[in-house]
Amino acid sequence: MTLPETTTTTAASTPADSGNDCGNDCGNDSGIGSAKDRVLRPHAEDAFAHELAALAAQDDRTRPARWKLSPWAVATYLLGGTLPDGTVITPKYVGPRRIVEVAVTTLATDRALLLLGVPGTAKTWVSEHLAAAVSGDSTLLVQGTAGTPEEAVRYGWNYAQLLAHGPSRDALVPSPVMRAMDRGMTARVEELTRIPADVQDTLITILSEKTLPIPELGEEVQAVGGFNLIATANDRDRGVNELSSALRRRFNTVVLPLPATPDAEVDIVSRRVDQIGRSLDLPAVPDGVDEIRRVVTVFRELRDGVTTDGRTKVKSPSGTLSTAEAISVVTGGLALAAHFGDGVLRSADVAAGLLGAVVRDPAADRVVWQEYLETVVRERDGWKDFYRACREVSA
Ligand SMILES: Nc1ncnc2c1ncn2[C@@H]1O[C@H](COP(=O)(O)OP(=O)(O)OP(=O)(O)O)[C@@H](O)[C@H]1O
Ligand SMILES: [Mg+2]
Fold this sequence. Notes:
Helix content: 40-55%
Number of helices: 16
Distance between the termini: 65 Å
CATH class of the largest domain: Alpha Beta
Radius of gyration: 23 Å
Structural class: alpha/beta
CATH superfamily of the largest domain: P-loop containing nucleotide triphosphate hydrolases
Bound molecules: adenosine-5'-triphosphate, magnesium ion
CATH topology of the largest domain: Rossmann fold
Largest sheet: 5 strands, parallel
């Protein structure tokens, strides 16, 4: 059966949840309107349309069926690089090259891809960019929740049509997964392990048989070449173990790690804050600004339970303190500096956000934070302003 062309999504599918951010040229090259009426968060394929077009034009390697780019070009899109004609491809993911290569290669096989990791390790971000580069469309998305119904994965019905004319193709509302199968594209399932087990099981037939039966019509939708699925799951959440072993076998699991070094994390935060800042018309942050390094240092030390020099043990707070949260703290600070300061990011601008990120549990985390401030931050050379600003908001 061939499904009618449609670009609408079902109620169960939502845009990616990784924040109101966009690529380098938000709303400029993407042809999506002037600064005032541009969308807040263009999809990856729109925000980076010029990079994808340049890659497609210069990519002479073999492309799997219906792929917009070769696996090599998809990896270059994610990791960044310079093309023979001088076009610069910005890095989207900062991390081990091998991880991206394995992820991309998996999509060219008959196994689906499961991106696993602690919160804020760019699972959603990578999934969106992979779908954009492979299929030119990152919107075939099912958002997993405890209430995700089977229709969100299979298909639903337009009840007015169904009552008027009975079951027919016109009355059928395909899920994003069904549309991806029909068109040979990449489907995305966010937070797979939050989806109830019986709904997860629906994916087993889809992934192993590559077909989706529609008993009401006596038909089926068979996946065509190019179809694959990227799922994300959070390993801090209740239950990746809830993924049945039958379903897990259908996936190649790629674990996205936390940034290996402080420099890598500072690089990620600086890049993303720069991109998000542009989309919000915030002032640019000069390279290597101290506050970003401080926020990243604080996050890493509290997360690791030890100071960077390895000398002092510190207690860890209850929150995750991920890179994603560091990005939010710095972006929030930048907005404060722009609207209530002189546009220069200072300690006082990041202190309040930092406190909010660290102190999730008002009692226990506050003690951890105070202890860290007094034993580590206070003694550190060149951190006096930062210490004072944190003391002020913590009082
Ligand atoms: N290694 C990295 N390279 C590039 N960006 C990163 C990296 N780690 C985190 N980020 C940034 O962190 C932000 C949040 O990432 P994202 O929402 O994809 O995390 P997630 O792993 O899906 O988290 P959650 O489990 O909470 O859904 C994104 O803006 C992303 O750019
Ligand atoms: Mg996510």
